[in-house]
Amino acid sequence: MFSCWLSRLCRGLSTPTGRVTHLIQGSLSRRLMLSSQRRIPELSSFVARTNTCGELRSSHLGQEVTLCGWIQYRRQNIFLVLRDFHGLVQVVIPQDESAASVKKILCEAPMESVVQVSGTVISRPPGQENPKMPTGEIEIKVKSAQLLNTCKKLPFEIKDFVKKTEALRLQYRYLDLRSFQMQYNLRLRSRMVMKMREYLCNLHGFVDIETPTLFKRTPGGAKEFVIPSREPGKFYCLPQSPQQFKQLLMVGGLDRYFQVARCYRDEGSRPDRQPEFTQIVDISDVFRNTKVGFLQDALSKPQGTVKAICISEGTKYLKRKDIESLRKLAADHFNQEVLPVFPKANRNWNSPVAKSIMEEQRSELIRLMEIQEDGVVLLTAGEHRKACSVLGKLRLECADLLEARGLVLRDPALFSFLWVVDFPLFLPKEENPGELESAHHPFTAPHPSDIHLLHTEPKQVRSQHYDLVLNGNEIGGGSIRIHDAELQRYILATLLKEDVKLLSHLLQALDFGAPPHGGIALGLDRLICLVTGAPSIRDVIAFPKSFRGHDLMSNAPDSLPPEELKPYHIQVSWPADSEAEKSSLNQPYHPES
Amino acid sequence: MFSCWLSRLCRGLSTPTGRVTHLIQGSLSRRLMLSSQRRIPELSSFVARTNTCGELRSSHLGQEVTLCGWIQYRRQNIFLVLRDFHGLVQVVIPQDESAASVKKILCEAPMESVVQVSGTVISRPPGQENPKMPTGEIEIKVKSAQLLNTCKKLPFEIKDFVKKTEALRLQYRYLDLRSFQMQYNLRLRSRMVMKMREYLCNLHGFVDIETPTLFKRTPGGAKEFVIPSREPGKFYCLPQSPQQFKQLLMVGGLDRYFQVARCYRDEGSRPDRQPEFTQIVDISDVFRNTKVGFLQDALSKPQGTVKAICISEGTKYLKRKDIESLRKLAADHFNQEVLPVFPKANRNWNSPVAKSIMEEQRSELIRLMEIQEDGVVLLTAGEHRKACSVLGKLRLECADLLEARGLVLRDPALFSFLWVVDFPLFLPKEENPGELESAHHPFTAPHPSDIHLLHTEPKQVRSQHYDLVLNGNEIGGGSIRIHDAELQRYILATLLKEDVKLLSHLLQALDFGAPPHGGIALGLDRLICLVTGAPSIRDVIAFPKSFRGHDLMSNAPDSLPPEELKPYHIQVSWPADSEAEKSSLNQPYHPES
């Protein structure tokens, strides 16, 4: 139900192609609004303008209008194109002597200056209509004009076709925000969040509650920002997620809670598209008696498996060097050997390893994987997670290769949702596989059918965690939580060996009549990214930080004088090398030494 | 227009009396929802229950229902009252042998345990209806029951009449949230914010944009929390308000922006009701030739003034000791002398100072202030702001006194809005009156008619700042901002002597075609406080901090081990006394020394 609704929402709000590359200027905001609600919002209430630049049509002919906007361009001192957030409109600069002052203003103002014009909506002369422009049938015959602000020489032009580096865009973010693409992304984000709110509040009675951002360090919260308080040695933390508060609200009877919440994680930006989960076929049984060395090796180990993916029409579109580069990628990045198998024996790979696959194994493989004649199988072996990771990556690489050759595999207008369930509750610790850690977090409830295994085989217990995937990208996840204090204590203290004292308030809350509860969190940035087709989450955030967490516009984080740190009872511990650097700076300058 | 709409919103959402003290349990959420929208939200979608406890009526008779809730109380092992966020319902515990297991569950579960029951809605026997309870005509004949979670002994009962200290309420916030009053406050807040969003987004095309919380220190931002980054000596700050971002969004063409934003101020909680502004009458001219010493003194100084307020029916309701206590308050807290004047000479105050007010001054005063016979005038003199502050405070005190005597002065159901305008742009610095500081902040635009005074008489310049007051409480404020970079530079550098380098990104943004712009921010906590009649803003926030900024539930802020501070290149500077304490703890124990 949830993903159905989300799918409708995405389709309703995004443009027909799903990827907004060539926008017809001016029509986007209107389309956005029309698609998401019936009543058209009043965009010129409270302000000096009577209309927006983008809304004027033949139906407005003869109307006296006042418009405000930026000067987009000027042609031969006769025409001027004015832009606001809604679109573009052509303004005719008066040429008669009596309007000399208006002409002077409109001809002398630099590009991107802000002007207010008043005049009449008139038809363009026959043959001069511009069908590519939503306001292309009309123009404005100006009577008066006012220069509201002049613009100095810009670091780049506000035109979509002008290429600029991301660093420059971030440094002058307020200029970049004037682009149609950024306007579209941010306004769509706002509409989309509003639709979500209407769905939750108005249709289903959810309650929107703000939880604090100044909180306490949670166990294992190594990625939480710390905030010194005015009490010596005492720190707040910015929570990684409101997950504890969510649970406490459920204990507090605030049924049907939601929040558009900020999450703070002190880690470098990750690329926002990752292969999250892949469907693969397990073919270990086919190769139980193989003679191929690396397959034998893998199957002899406890977690060992042989896995494969099939690339339909692979023989038609992939070349020998493509297959080689895929094998190299697997070897270089995953240290995994990958073997291609072709259904037809005579098209077999010219390699000694490949040839050692027996004919009956090949037939069995073709049967199991339902391979067509022109398919190619990529086969690997090894530890289960590693084998899955490498094939997941190769699957995406193949898709890119095939699409580059003209095959349409992924319809950009299609929103395909997928629920991923039955995760394990625990994983062996990487540094010490004898101990357990939570696959997600220690508050996830075990699967009801597996509770009996908690005391005997905890590794076999499935969790009630679920992930939501859109077009191969994880966009959200959640879980049913543990509401039983004893079970929570057992998992924290006995299985995970955590210090339960740090979570005493949560455990106590579970003791006081906590109802069974669960929830889900969507990654809004990534979801909007997928809907708009933006290449990076930085394109759907108004003021994003750079990859290294810097604000390139204001230069945050920045140095502070020691006296400003004093009230917080902290001082900077300069690392040894920068200390040396500092002292060398403080050295008197002796050119002769 | 704005305050009209806000007034309608407040009236629409709050209860008829404006102060929710005696709630009819169960009806509140429904009334809340009905009043704010036409379509009733579906409260039992996605969950196991078929209905909420609070919604069942005679119209549901005969229906098979499944309910979930907390056990509110139990009577003689026959009746049990079940509570959810929507209200209360009576459940009949089956007494026949065949339902022994159901009876056992429902009779043995401690209060506040969570149960799920299924059964039929039946009429209460004639005479047993409870008209005070919205579900009082029906009860549930239970067929099956399930104990979802047991509850241990609570620190206090979840009943509104049980008095608890605020510290206890904050420590067990998740229990306090189960109270009808907290449920009402938080759900009303959610609905009210949703109505605001619908008004802004759907009716007027505003765009909801999130601005960053990790930002850079702003000049004069002494109350901003600092956040160390992983770069040595570099800090982020939590912004006091998104004011710089607001302006940058305007420069970026994100016309009609709004946000429900968090503001972070590192200061103690203020009481949430303060005398903000008062209407008073200036009567300086009456006393130009006075013989009263403190009036003479005051009028001889440049900012000196004589001001008065009139308390209608004061002689009827106020006693001599009331007037004395008011004078004492003015003397103790404001160091101001206050003189009472009675219209009738024979009722004059028995004090040498009072008697020295000449009869003609008294008559003039009565005429000017339109004083009725039973009125009392409170008169003070001194520096303008001080005189206003003390009279503002006394006015509120008098109102409290008169209301305590049974007079109804302030209708709690009435929402009276007031705009305060024409503030001065600058004030003399308190520590150095020869220099200027901004009355609000340096980005406020001067009043257009006063711009010529900026170079000659800056103290006389009015600002384009405006405050919105509801029932005497400031609930919001805003301003038209400076969009001209030269004017902004002149005010920052020449008039305020600020270091403009720290604001170079903002000044540059103004240079690049900033449109004229302005806005307003409402204090949501305080507004909801006034609408719900809550005594403190802590009653309209789910997880508030205590007066000293502590989270009494989780014990934040908390200590951190030094190794967790290492990645941030900071260490704690322990104050001398706590250092001594620490070293004494580290001393070996020598009982003989």
UniProtKB/TrEMBL annotation, chains A, B:
InterPro entries: Aa-tRNA-synt_II, aa-tRNA-synth_II, aa-tRNA-synth_II/BPL/LPL, Asp-tRNA-ligase_1, Asp-tRNA-ligase_1_N, Asp/Asn-tRNA-synth_IIb, GAD_dom, NA-bd_OB-fold. Residues 186-544 form the Aminoacyl-transfer RNA synthetases class-II family profile domain. It holds the Pfam family tRNA-synt_2. PROSITE patterns: AA_TRNA_LIGASE_II (PS50862). Keywords: Aminoacyl-tRNA synthetase, ATP-binding, Ligase, Nucleotide-binding, Protein biosynthesis. This is Aminoacyl-transfer RNA synthetases class-II family profile domain-containing protein. It comes from Felis catus (Cat).
